Amino acid sequence: MTTPRVLKTPDEVRWFERDLRRRGQRLALVPTMGFLHEGHLSLMREGRVRCDVVAATIFVNPAQFGPNEDLSRYPRDQEGDLTKCGQAGASVVYCPEPSTVYPPGYQTYVSVEQVSQGLCGGRRPGHFRGVATVVTKLLSLFRPDVALFGEKDYQQLQVIKALAKDLELGVEIVGLPTVREADGLAMSSRNVYLSAEDRARALSLSKGLFAMKAAAEGGEANVARLVALGLAPLTQAKVKVDYLEVRDADTLAPLTTVTSGRPARVLVAAFLGATRLIDNLALTVP
Question: Is the pTM of this model over 0.85?
Fold first, then answer.
């Protein structure tokens, strides 16, 4: 394992990127907010397969947090994260300060209109503007050949795909399947907030999603009946549901019926105490 080189400023990133291009090497970028888990590390390992060099970023982005959200207490472990990045094959990690990304007088933001509507976009006003802005800045700085993101944040992935295409950034956006714990819970940095009781109740999210997936594969195409199946475990566990919806997998338009020729996705958000978790699965009918 080699210790990754830490970059702190845009100028350092530019020098790194230019040197990489002079050597004719392909670059994979994995943006993160740190407190890394196996989901993040799987992206870095895949980046190493696809490209010569992998760069990661660790930045808790204040622009994507609302005024009553968990910015100040979001879990952080930069020293441990750097070790994990090195083990996963990242040779460079960009760790800027908030004042570097958003200096005094900063006034430019990126909004992706359609796929950011509803779901987390509706529940967290301004969230995806913050996501789109920081990701656009990172892609513009690093100019990677490939950027990798997890499907757990599925709406975020669709926002990033849209901005990369619409702004002609020349980067391939790759989404990789959600990495789960052995019992099915989607890995998330926020899982550390959960008490033992809430951790057990959180399994109702994936239980409901997999029940919907099995029913769809068995021929159930009616979204209302599928949603009822997904809600049952959440209700039983007394989980506060934020949303549970079936959407078109590409456009994120709401669906009333799942059809074999139209990819669909079920997305859920729920509160376990004060912790908000999200998850999703693809739905397919025969």
Answer: yes
